[in-house]
Design goal:
Layout: H1 2-41, H2 50-63, H3 70-88, E1 92-96, H4 102-111, E2 116-120, H5 123-132, E3 137-144, E4 148-149, H6 151-158, E5 163-171, E6 175-178, E7 189-193, H7 194-199, H8 201-207, E8 212-216, H9 219-225, E9 232-236, H10 238-244, E10 247-250, E11 260-267, E12 277-284, H11 291-301, E13 306-313, E14 321-328, H12 334-346, E15 349-357
Parallel strand pairs: 1-2, 1-3, 7-8, 7-9
Antiparallel strand pairs: 3-4, 3-11, 5-11, 6-9, 6-10, 12-14, 12-15, 13-14
Length: 361
């Protein structure tokens, strides 16, 4: 009886697979037609539209009734859209490398595996590649929920005219891993990025207090190093473990279970409203009492939700500072326009870094 029931279910699955295949192929042909129509109207047309993809994925998650969760369903549709977009024009993306890092993972989460992702050695190199037009977009980390802001990314915006086109929020899980050469009872050295060590400090103090902690340029570099050593381990993420064939001997060792990192998508084009957006600005104020209040007051008056305020040293003089401010809304929204006008009246300089769809976990 069970075999008969299983046979019927397999026939049903085969039928559904064929329907899914036919529908994906139909969608791909539609994407090709979109490319043809766009190219006829404008030979230099842009195919990737961040606001449109955000709207599609939100709608998918709103209509999802399970049993797959919203994030898993969105991931599947992201890959379908990525593959279809590659038929039109593959997106080329620079990310803070090397391969196997969380930034690469964020790039694939946002653009899908059909995008062409190119690793860069430093954050300013990502900015340069995008500014030069060698790639269409860049992906850089901007803040971690445990360790705070990535100052190199904020400082890069002070010297760049690039715009923020999107954000990715990635849940960060750190794992203790070893290679096939590791003698587990003789581990005396652990490699990882400095931020990963900080995110796992309590766990390391409890489980490996005597092991030397060696900070390297990336978690991927840590994973690579232990391949040639018998007395070392690494702390890194899933992608590094898969790429270098390592075994995880302790999983999710981060001290905070909600440990997340926010990444920014940078590009040359402004992004139209998607219906659920954020805006980022950088504000230079006179060094005088009440400067911060002058910035915050318009947001309070117009009931705009601030999501982040960071201060960085200005390039214009000692003890002068600039403020990086993120808030909900799009710069084309009437209320946001009023706030920006008021800030422009009060600031020495105001620059909108970009309005973009809000990221989700």
């Amino acid at each position: 009886m069970a075999d008969e029931k299983l046979g019927q279910l397999r026939i049903q699955i085969d039928s559904l697979d064929q329907k899914i295949l036919d529908l994906i192929s139909e969608r791909a042909r539609c994407a090709q037609e979109v490319a043809r129509v766009k190219t006829e109207a404008d030979p230099s047309a842009v195919f990737y539209r961040p606001e449109r993809e955000a709207q599609v994925l939100r709608k998918i998650m709103e209509k999802n009734d399970g049993p797959l969760n919203d994030e898993e369903m969105a991931r599947l549709f992201r890959e379908i859209m990525s593959a279809c977009l590659a038929l039109e024009d593959p997106v080329k993306v620079a990310f803070l490398g090397p391969e196997g890092t969380f930034t690469q993972q964020a790039s694939l989460k946002h653009f899908g595996h059909s995008a062409v992702c190119v690793p860069m050695a430093a954050i300013d190199e990502v900015f340069r590649e995008v500014a030069a037009g060698a790639v269409s977009y860049g992906v850089v980390p901007v803040e971690n929920s445990t360790e705070g802001v990535v100052s190199h990314t904020l400082d890069s915006f002070l010297d760049s005219s690039l715009k923020i086109c999107g954000e990715v929020v990635l849940r960060i899980h750190q794992h203790m891993m070893v290679s096939e050469n590791t003698r587990r009872d003789h581990i005396t050295r652990i490699y990882s990025h400095a931020q990963s060590f900080a995110q796992c400090r309590k766990w390391l103090d409890s489980h490996w207090p005597m092991a030397e902690r060696v900070a390297v340029s990336s978690n991927a570099e840590a994973a690579k190093r232990i391949k040639g050593e018998w007395n070392s381990a690494a702390i890194a993420g899933d992608m590094a473990a898969e790429m270098y064939g390592l075994e995880k001997i302790a999983e999710k060792i981060e001290d905070r279970p909600d440990n997340s990192t926010r990444f920014l998508i940078i590009g040359n084009q402004p992004v139209p409203p998607s219906g659920n957006d954020k805006t980022s600005v950088v504000i230079s104020m006179r060094n005088q009492p009440g400067a911060l209040h002058a910035i915050l007051e318009p947001f309070h008056v117009h009931n705009l939700d601030l999501t982040r305020v960071e201060t960085r040293p200005s390039r214009t003089g000692i003890w002068n500072y600039v403020f990086f401010v993120d808030f909900e809304g799009h710069q084309e929204d009437p209320v946001v326009r009023k706030v920006l006008e008021k800030l422009g009246e009060r600031a020495n300089d105001l620059r909108v870094l970009g309005s973009y769809p809000k990221g989700v976990l």
